Every structure is written in structure tokens, then in C-alpha cells.
Amino acid sequence: MMDMGFSTSGDLKLDIETRRKKQQDLILKLVERKVRSRARQLYETRGEVDGHALQDWVQAESEVVGNSIVAPLYRRQRNQNPEQMDAPKESSCETLA
């Protein structure tokens, strides 16, 4: 039998869970990058007028995430760890860059 470097099946399960978590984190980062990019487009389309960063972010989230397959994961992560998500502050659109 081949030794995979795991002493017990518990170690293998932990490795699978770690891999799953890393994959989810990567997916969330990619989705957030798309949201940020779309929010930036909305800001630029409006003539780079400040004061609408939150509105742009919410609209971009709606367009990008919508009813996609990653929507539940994105929303769950957003609700569990709002401080980790990169939503803009209303005072400046520069956070969207």
C-alpha cells in the first residue's frame, strides 16, 4: 500500500477540508475582483462623480453575482465575515480602483 503521508483518515479529511476552504477563498476573491471591476466601470461611466460608491458596489454585486452558482457561497461569506470583504466606503470611490 502506498504511503500518502497521512497517519490517519482524520488527517486526510483535514487535508480535503483545507483544500476545499482554499478553493472557496480563491473563488470568492475572483468574484470580488469582478465586482470591484464592474463598480469601477459604473463609476467611470457616471463621469467619476464621487458619492455613489456604495450604490455602484451594490449594483455591481447584483450584476456579477446575481443568481450564479457562487451566489450562496459569496453571500454566506459576506454575512459571516463582513470585515474581510472589500466593499467601498461611501466617502471615496478610490477604493474601487
Which helices and strands, and how do they pair?
Elements: H1 9-45, H2 53-64, H3 71-80
Total count of helical runs of at least 4 residues: 3
Major beta sheet summary: none
Please count the beta strands (DSSP E, at least 2 residues each).
0
Which blocks of ≥5 consecutive residues have pLDDT under 50? 91-97
- Content-based structural category: mainly alpha
Globally, the shape reads: elongated
Average pLDDT, rounded to a whole number, is 81
Q: What is the radius of gyration computed over CA atoms, rounded to a whole number of angstroms?
A: 18 Å
Percent in helix: 55-70%
Which key terms come to mind for this protein?
0% strand, 97 residues, mainly alpha, 3 helices, single chain, disordered C terminus
